[in-house]
Structures are given as structure tokens and as C-alpha cells.
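Reopening closed ticket. The problem is back. First fold of the pair:
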Amino acid sequence: MTTTGIERGPQVLNFTPDYVAEKLRALNGLGLPAVKIANTHPATLNLRSEYVSEKLAFLTGLGFNAVHLIEKKPGILALTAETVKAKVRIFNAAARAWGWEEPEQQAIRLVQEWPVILTYSPTKLRTLARMASSAFEARDGATVRGTEVSALVSTNLEQAVVAYLENEGEIIRPKDVVRLAKRYKAIGKQALRERIISERRNPVVVTYLRS
């Protein structure tokens, strides 16, 4: 392991060299880049190899390239099966509402492109999915890139919702939300929430409040 890995997980200093070597061999045996994962997410060394194997099988069963997901975002190993399945349902529902052909396959493709999306809160994902179905123009799912989705999901949720409420007619693509949300960076979260709540009958606001 590198000093970066130790800085991220100083608890590894309590492990014996034999223990670390055994854990790395087990991860390699599962087809994972063990040293890379240990350096980016040292907590992985605390996991039983049986648990990691089961998580890989679970993700594969959902249609993902599990090794790719874990290599890109090892923290996914910490997510429960129920959490992952709930988020996949959100992605699938959003893809169907957006009018994509083969929505499940396209949703899986986007997650593969940007695995970190699985770590965002269900509240944010549901709200943005409802916004997509309410405001975004219909598009072929194959033309939507992971970079578009990542920029949208990385945007502050309250700023994004207020941008949608204040500029509804201008929003037809994810990049419009990202651009317009910047107007509200200087406004505090409480003031943004008050603006959102004032439109409590709006479908996007309903989803935001329910979540």
C-alpha cells in the first residue's frame, strides 16, 4: 500500500503484514485490482472475502459489470442490497418516464459510466428523476452521457429545485439545471427550502418533500 492509502485508512497500521497480504490475495482472486482498491478505500481490507464475493455476484445479477463498478467506486461495497436495488428502481423509472427505449439497459449503462451515482441519497435521485420526467425534452437514451448525469447529480439539490421552479420554461436538458442552479449559490439552504415549500403542489416539490 502507498502512503496515500495509509493516510485514508490509518487503521491499516494495526494490521500485520500477513493479514494485509492475505486480504490482497483474496481480492485479486476475485478479479479485483487489490492494491488499487486498498489504496483508494482501505476499509475494504476489513471485509470478509465471502462478503465481497457475494456483493460481486449480486451486482452481476442486476446486470452490472461488478468488477468495473467496484474498481471505480469501492465504497459501493458498503451499500446494502436493499439500498442498491432501491436506487436501480429509481434509475429505471426515470429512464422509462424520459421515454427511453430499453430503459433498464440504458440506466445500467449510465451507472457503469459513472458508478458514484449509486452513493447519492435516494431523496436527491428521486427528486431529480421527477424533474427529468417533468421538464426534460424526450431523448434517445443512448445519446445521454454519464457526464451529463454526473453534472446534474453533483449539483446542490435545493439550488437545482429552485432553478427548476424559477426557470421552468428554460429547462429542457440536465445542463440547463446545472447552469441555472449557479444563480442561487449565494442563497442559504433555509431560504431555498422556504422557496421550494411555497410551491408544495408542484410534482417535483411533492417528490422532494416526500423523500
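Second fold of the pair, where the issue appears:
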Amino acid sequence: MDSLVKTIEQSWKDFNFKDEHPDFVGSYDYLIIDQESNTSFTVDSSEILITATRKDSILWTTDPWLDNKLEIYRHNRPVITYFKLRTIKKPKRKYELKGQKFLRIGYSNSQFGDINISNGKFIFLGQD
């Protein structure tokens, strides 16, 4: 049994999701990999901070709710419950350009918005 556990643990350590799924775009737990820019976007285990990394360097880190001083709504400290990479096909908002990419995030209190993937700036879009 111990050898089986060690084999599974080693297999997991050797597993590289990006190599196994090169066409993957979307979220797997709280990891998104943009294949075009080779940038990874992660939500930390507290479900509060988002970090963009490329190779071994951090491009930006943000706590969109705190950094943008969103008002308390429904509960004191919302966490990220929705996290998706989107590419603008038809611009609908003044800040959008065709082909531009954003992370769409949603919080546990229903607040949501977009994060510009190039600089980590959050645009609040509303709440239910």
C-alpha cells in the first residue's frame, strides 16, 4: 500500500497540466492559463487575491474588492466564487477593445467585474 501511495504522489508531482492539456482555456480550480501570452492567473486559497505570473516572475497581484474599496454588501468580506478568462469579440463597454482579454470575477455577495489581464486593474460592473 505504501508503494502505491508513493507512486501516486510521484505521478502527481510529475504531472504538468499545461503539457497534458495544451489547448485548455478556462478555470481548473482557481488556475487559468492564457496560452497566447503564456500567463497563469491564480486565486489564492483564501479566495481573495489574484496573481498573474509568467515564467518565474509575478506580473501583478490584486485584491480587487479591497483595492477598489467596494462597499460592504450582504456580508463583510466576500470571496471569489467565479473566475473566467474572456476575450472581447464585440465591444459593449467603453473600456473594451476587440480581441482584448479580461478576467471576469464574481464574489460570494453577487458583486462582479472585469480585471484587465495586462495590468490587473479591476472594473466594477455591479451587484445583484
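Update: turned out to be a display glitch only; the data is intact. The radius of gyration is 17 Å. The CA atoms of residues 102 and 116 lie 5 Å apart. Please close again.
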